């Protein structure tokens, strides 16, 4: 399944309280469960939180499902980028 990075512009998200982040994660999980029940193949891996943005890593059959999740959950999808390849320190070893 393709992997995507979703950039979300969310002012002051980096200073959000733990409870607010928990509520956001619960909302996302709820929408993902609904979509899964509709046989839509999308999965949230994790999210990096910066000061005014988040960078979410998702697996999804297509970009349209990413946008659908964003619309249904109420979280913006400012930029969606498909990951073509991954490299890490082991890549340097040949």
UniProtKB/TrEMBL annotation:
| Record-given protein name | DUF4242 domain-containing protein
Instruction: Specify the species.
Output: Tectimicrobiota bacterium
